[in-house]
Every structure is written in structure tokens, then in C-alpha cells.
Amino acid sequence: MKHAAVLALLFSWPVCAEKLEIRLDQQLGQPAGVVLRGPNPGQSVLFTLPRGRVVESAHLALRLRYSTGLLVGSSFTVAVNGTPVSSLHLNSSGEANLTASIPAEALRDYNRLEFQAALHDSANQCESPNDPALWATVAASTSMVFEMRGYLRAPGIEDFPAPLADPLDYRPAVVRFVLTPQHTSSEYAIAARIAGALGDRLEFRSARISAVPQFDPDADAGQVLFGTPESLATLTGIAAPALAAAEGRLRIVENLRRPGRYLLLVEGSTPAARRRAAEILGEESSRPRGLLPTGESFKLSDISPLISEDANGAVTVHGADPPAIVISLRPAAAEHFVRAEQNVHLEYAYGPQVDNASSAVEVRLNGKTLLGQSLARPAGSGAEMLEVTLPAEMLGEDNRLEVRFHLYPKNGAACVANAGAGANGSSNGDQLWATLLGSSGFHLPRDSYADLPDLSMLRSGGYPFHDGPTLLVARPADATLLLNTAFLLGRLSGAALPAILEMRFESELSADLRRDYHLITVAAGPAIIVEEAVSPLNPQRMILTVTAPEENAIALQDPALIAGLAGAVTRMDASHRVRSARAGRTVRFGVIPINRRVKYWVMDNVMLLIANSLVLLFAGFFFLRYLRKHYFQPLPD
Predict the structure, then answer these.
(1) pTM of the model
(2) In a domain, 636, yes or no
């Protein structure tokens, strides 16, 4: 009976479907819900599903609040990726609940939950687009529940970090690294590299990462194992294909004892072979994600990932009050915008239905309006230009350039019943459009220098540890803390840890290593402390010390700690309060070119130069008078 129960339990795991709940307020970042305003408002919210999973069923539970002054004919529709899910006729009650099934065939990895309403408070359905009485709110408690099984195809190493950890899954991943005292520092370096790659590719999703001394086939977690193909085959019960003596290999396989949970096997006959195999995890990213290109000049089409809207070279917006097109202008760590040289050349187009008397384009930088221009051509335009200079004093570590089109219809003052739906099914709002063209250009020269120690530099590319030879230093007993530190560095860098990253145990450190490498020292301690200092052996090398309790190493992923990194020392207490202290002495890494140093000095000392010029002018005048009086007597008449 006992063996039968165990077998029944084992075979029950693949049968049970996983449930994933996604709420507007918790997972989708809409704590106040989604507000719809105007006669024909529409909004959409992006959500993701675990990559490549089989969705068996999906259900939506929605609560809607709306104006009690709405008349018969008002309606609300919800759709997913353009596929209608359900509709409501809105009466005067002011609220409604909607429960519906979402068609599984409409779902993808990346999805849009779309809300569309028709709101009327006049009998002839002739309302102003700015009527404040026309509103509806989708409550923040609105949720979707998905039941999922397995994968559409067997995952492979090309899918990393899935299935160990999925950046599209809202649930925190659980990953165990099997590291024993017999493993060398080289294998600890491989583990740190994999943990850093997880931190990079999971972006801002959390993961519970731990180091354990032995493999547990029944663990409800993804696991990473290191060894020869033969030893791992014996340990896991999974046959290993033949592997040449000098070669290494990464394999993703399903745990035979725990179906649905996967193992990452780092195989090779030697630690060097296993290390070469793990290096493929960092080949993709040379420039940290989310940063401006390295070049000073580039096109809008070159920075599609930095634009808020789905962009494929250009961005088009529709409707009377479309959302702003937001472009992230985030420099890398140690990059500083050159003053008085930041220029943006915007090219845009708009349709013939736009009212040229009231419509305009507005450009904002970090919430401050810089410039605007009317959309003045009655027949629309396929190519307009706007030159914008970005003030240096308004540019910082994280910048948002907003291009907002204010679009109004030509017949906006007249009544268009039912918003004038056309033969193609598009509404009058859809006929209002404007496009920011991909040929729009940016000229954003930057100087590269930093005054260290400054922990805030870690947030924009892991500077300077991602850019130079770096050595991780830890004890085997602090393996969990080491992995969480590597995960944090991968997240801060926005790139996998570089291949030049090495790892040594404390006992293996030599004076040459201490002098030639940036050091990241990891040690268990009672408090969470991140400290940066200039190496006493080499003023162009830094030492980063990370201290935290081994059992609370996951606290290094706390957003409050990451946001609070600054100065030379940052501490976080048990109440998650973050405090930082400035460095008493700093060292400059990098230089400002001499021509720009002269330019900056002139810009900072304009009044002094003017005053000196006036003094020299008057001094020259009186000196010439003196010469004329004493040495150049006037000629006789």
C-alpha cells in the first residue's frame, strides 16, 4: 500500500494543472484601476504568460464602476488581443460585475487586455469629448485566472532562463545550485555566472536562489548541477549523450522524479570545459539593456526597445487624446551629457481629419514642456520637422522624452452621431492619427568619467566592475550569499556577468590578484551592507564588499535597497529602511577631453571673462594715452 501511494503521488504531479492569477493592482501595476473617459474611450493593459506553456482554460472576473448619468445605448466591451471576451449594457446603477471565459486560442506569451466603452448622456448621442460626466473605471481588483500544463515543445538551453525561471511569469522562481565543498572555485565562478545571467534576463522579477550541498530529486524547484556526464547521469538517472573529453555542454532536462521541474546540467570532463560551456549564457549582451547606444548620433528606428509603444521604426497614435510617446534617454554609468550639444530632430506626419486650428504636437523632458508646434496643414502632412534642444541642466540619470500629439477633429464642434462609424468599422477617433517617423534623429554626445566610490553607478551598467577585470571572493560556506550577489550584479548591469569575471576563495588570493583586479568580496554578517572603496594597492581598482545574513540573502533583491544605492556605504535594516553615507575621498575614473574642459570653463566663467575683457580694454586705453603723452608728442602745426 505504501508503494502504491508513492506511485500515485508521483503520477499525480503531471495531471494537476498549475494556476496563475493576474490582478490589475498586484501584477499589472494599476493600483487605482483603469479609467476610461469620453464618449468612445479605449485603454489596454499589457500582461504576459509563462513562455511556451499550454493554457487549458482562462477566466476573467471584472468589476466596473461608471457614471450614474449614462443613458440607454451605453456599453462596455472587454477583449484580449483583439478577440472579444464579453460585453455589458450599462444602465443607471453605476456598477456592474462581469465574469467570462477567455478563449485559450487568443492567448500568446505577450498579451493585451483591452477595454472599450461607448458612453452617452444625451438622447441624440452627441457628447463633447471633454464631458467630465462620461467616465467608467475598471476596478483594481479585476483578475484573470489561468490553468496551465506543460510546454508546447520540450524546452532547451536556447530558452534560458526558462524553464528554470521565466521572465514572463509573475510568480517568483525557485532555483537551487548544487555546490559541495569538493567543487573548486572555478565551478563556483560558473555558478555565479549563471546566477548573474538569471539576474540579467529576469530583469525585475524576483527569484529565490540558494546553494545546497546535495541534489534533491523531489524538490519543488529548478536545480543547477555541475559535473562529468557520467556522474550527473548516475545522480539524476538521466542518460547522457557522448561528449568529447575537452568539450563542455549545457543541457536542460526534466526532473524524472518531479515532472514539471527542470534541471540545468553543466557537463564536462574538467572544470575548464564546464566553464567554456557556461560562457554562452553571456554572449548576447555587450551593451547593458535599456541604455542609449554608444554612438553620439542615432535614429529613432535604432532605439525601438527604449520606446513606450510597440515600435517598428515608427510610432503611430490614434484618437482625440492619445497617450504620449515616451522615449527613455538613459545614459550608461559614468556617461554625462555634453552641455549645450543635445539636439533632437523630430519628423512626424498627421492625417487630413486633424483640425489645423487647434491640434498641436508638444515635447516634454522629464515632465517639463520644452517646445510645441501647431499641426497647421489643412490637408494633413506626410513629413514635418521640429528641432528641439535639450537643456543640460534638465538631463540626469534617468530621462523621459515625451512626444504628445493633441489631436482634434475638424468637425469637433458639430455632432457626429455614434462617433461616425465608417464602412470599414473604424470610428471617427480612429481617423485621427499622427505618426512619429523612424527617421527622427538624436545627437546626444556624452563624456565618460566617474568619481568613485559611488554605489549609484552600479544601477546603470554595474560600473566599474562590468567594464574591467573583476574577481569574486567568497568562502564555500557563503555560497548562497555569493549567488544572490551575482544575481544582483546581473540585474544592476542589465547584462550577463562578463567572461573575464573570475572567482577565488579567500585562501587563493595573492598580492598580484589584489592589485590587478576589481574585487567583489562576499561575507556573511548580521546586517545588510554594501560598501565600495578604492583599493589601497591600486588607485584605479575598486573593492566592493557585500555583507548580509546567509539565511536572508534574498534581501539583496529588495527594490528599496537597489533604489537606495548611493555614496560609499549603503545599509538596510530589518525594517527595510535604507541609509547611505558619502565617501570622504574620491578618485576619478576616465577623463574629459581637453576641448570640452575648456568649453565648460568658458561657459561657467562668462561673467569673469566679460569683466576681465572690460578691465583689459580700459587698461589698454589708458596705456595708449600714457604712451602718446610721454613718448609721442603731437607734431607742430
Answers:
(1) 0.82
(2) no
